[in-house]
Every structure is written in structure tokens, then in C-alpha cells.
Model the fold of this input.
Amino acid sequence: MAKQVARRFFGLREVHREGWVPNKPEKMVACDRQHPRRLEEPPKGLFGLKALKKIKSWQCSCFKLSNRLTVVGFLVGYMGCATSWADSISSVNNVGAMSNQNGSTPVVSAPWAIYGQYTNTYQWHPAFASPYSGTNSLYAGNNGDQTNDATLYLGYRWSPDTEIWINPEYDQGYGLSGTVGVAGFPSGEAYKVGANNPYYRTPRLFVRRVFDLGGATQQVDAGVNQLAESRTANNVIITVGKFAVTDVFDTNSYAHDPRADFMNWSLVDAGAFDYAADAWGYTYGASAEWTQSWWTLRGGVFDLSTVPNSEKLNQNFSQYELVTELEERHQWRNYPGKLKFLAFVNRAPMGSYNQALQLAAQTGGVPNTALVRQSNWRPGAELNFEQGLGDDLGLFARASVNDGSQETYEFTDINQSFSTGLSLHGQRWGREGDTVGAAVVVNGISKSAQRYFAAGGLGVLVGDGQLPQYGNETITELYYAWQIQIHVAMTFDYQHIANPAYNPQRGPVDVFGIRTHLDF
Done:
């Protein structure tokens, strides 16, 4: 097994799904039927076409490294050269923050900030039991795939209380089996689109303004998409532009960042939170956060995609999501904790599972929710809990549910989900920067969805062509994040997936992963 992992990670002959030709410049995208297909042209974005033309020759020689460990050595070397420069930028941004430690001097940070990151995630699974497979099935043979992304975070202080941020990014690679086959997909770095060649996009471009409402002055340290500043304990924060719904809602200190902690989709986010997003996970919208003392109330409106699981967002907000979240903060034995209640509703043309089944019975075909879509509401709710148990130990849990009579619109094919886990920092063994995490998540679907998939229907990520038996999809994830140095980390990850795509006749699947993350 070690030899197989090594061969796949170093880019030697890989086993892919039937019909895949890994060296062709294809791009996986989502179509109206919620099934990946391939296009020849990379997506166009802000500066995207011009940038691709200008660096075409450079890509040919440089980005081929992204499929080899050589890229890690190259970037580590670069980071070593860039560390002092990046640290100097960080220190400039934090000058004001340091002067405010006594609570007397307002934070005055630099008017701009530059951060960056690169993440490579490689995952592989050995062959597993599979008496049959369908269009959206996880490939049952030995299979490995990887993703790469490089991002800049550029910020500018427009006024003392207003910031503007843009995050240009290049992406490359595929999730396992083209990011299908498991509702709780094992890599949060794998999008519903993929490409062999790097392509440009702009996931975030937003404005944030803070309105102080009184109370004690608090320091906010500089970081990614945040300039150093001071604000009062009571405040209102308005964010408008393009960003991820989960940048503001459903956050959790121990399970929310697929570049640093857990990797599974249904662990880093609530599995049944069908949040507005394009195929990459971002959308246009606005949010407001009102903080008073020990609580925060959030609300937002966001644009849905044109059809479920689409690259394109609706242009006139006629299809939208409304979301609200109430957060309570407390102390337990002097350790911080939070409890959040979130509710959302999506408004768009979507298909009913039962109507799709009725139509298929009349025509003798396979049920397809795309054929019965009509404007409808699809609500859902979530509880999100986190609690510090010690200086180095934290606990988290999420429980979420949505309307299982309608098809999934944006996220993944989950109608009920419960997850819980622990996160432990490495002080106890002399590695303060390291983290070990362990978690389990149980995902389920409604009775209507079960009948739909049993009849051969396809969802966003799942659809084995049949479902003679149903079982909750149960996933266990373990990871160790090794902080090699302040700007370089490597994570070793293992996931055990029972009943992938709710199918007890396939699997279980053991997924092994290595994640390399660099930042400045």
C-alpha cells in the first residue's frame, strides 16, 4: 500500500475512472442535470482572459510542477526568501495593534495588506467492494487525485471604518472521481469543477464597514481579509460584494477550514446547510452582524445559481437565499464557548422528488428533478456548538436539517446531518503549532430522496443508478497537522466512509490524504 501511495503522489502511472484522459486540458463543470461534464475553455473572470494569455508560456513550464512533489520544494524555497518581507508587512499592520494593548491608544494600521497561500491536497483510496456503479458513483478501483490552489489576499483601508478586499486565485486539479460519489465529500479543497490546467477566478471581492455602538474598545488583529483595527464591543458590521456565505455564517473555531483542520465537506460546514453558492462555493450578497455584549445577531441575502449546482449565478436576484443566525457566547470553567442557531430558506425553481417519480412512472423513464422544477421555498435549520475544554483542547458539534421533499440546490445531497469531534493542540508533546483532530459525522436523506435514488435518479454528488438498501452515510476523520515552520504546514489525513452515497452495498471506503499548505 505504501508503494502504491508513493507512486501516485510522485505522479507515476495513476488509475483513473474509465473514460478519463488525465493529460487532456479538460475542465469539469456542472450541467443542468447536476452531473459533471467537460468543457475546453477555462472560466472567464476578472482579468482572467488577459492574465491567461500573458502567462501562457510560463504556465506550460511552471505549473507542470503542481503534479509533483517538486512544487513543494520550489514553494518552500520561495517562502524562505519571502518570509522576512511578509513578516515586515505583518509587523507594519500590527504596529497600531501593539500600541493598543493598554487600551488607551486607537489602532492605526497600514492602509493596505498583502497575504498569500498555496495548498496542495492529494487523496487516494484503495479498491473497495462494489457490485455495481452508476453515473455519480465513486470509482471502486485504486484511485488518486489532487487539487492545487494559490491565492492572494489584497486589502485596502478606504476609510477608518471601511475595508476593501479582493482575492485573486488560480486553481487546478480534481477531487476523487470528479467530486462525486459521496454526499459528505472527503476534500473541502475539491470543487464541483476541475481542470488539468490552472485557471483564474476571483472568489472574493467585497467591502466591509464597521459601525461602533459603544462599549469597551477591543483590538482586532490583522489577518487574512482583516486589517488591524479597534472597534467597540457593541457594533454593527456590514459586508457587501462577492464572498462565501460561510465566511460569515456557520463558522466554528475547530472545524471550518479545509486548508488547516478537517477536510470533509460535512465536517467543515453543516451538512444540511444548503447555502447559496456557485459551483466553487461563492456568491454575491450582503450580510449584517449586530453584536451586543454576549450575543450577535446576523442576517443576509444571497444570490442563488441559475440552476442547481451551476457555475453561473442568477443575475437579477430573482433566485435568492435568506439566512439568519443568533450566536450566544459564554464561559465554562473560564474556557470560551459558543452556541449558534441558524435558519435559512432558498427561493428558486427546484424539483420535487415525488413529482419526478410520478412523471417517470407515467413516461417509463428515469426520474429527473430537472423536468419538474417550479418556483418553491426550501427551508432548513442548524445548531452549531463549540466549547473550549482546556488551554489546548476543544469540542465541537453541529446538527442540521432541511426540507427533504425538494432537490438539493447548491451544496450536497444531505437532508439531515450530525457531526461532533475534538481538536487538540500539541503543547502536551512539545509541538505547540501542531494539531490533532478526530471527528465523526452521520448524514441522511429523506424517504422521498431514498425512493428517487432507488429509481435511478441523480443528485448533486450522489446517484449509483439504484439503491436497493438504504443506510446513513457515516464518516470518521482523523488528522494530524504538522507545523513545519511558521509559514509551512503538512497534514496527514484519514477518513473511513461507511455506506458511501447511502449505499450499504458499496464500500466501505478508506481515504488517505496529504495536504501541504504554505502562506505568507
Q: What stands out?
A: Residues 1-105 have pLDDT under 50 and may be disordered.
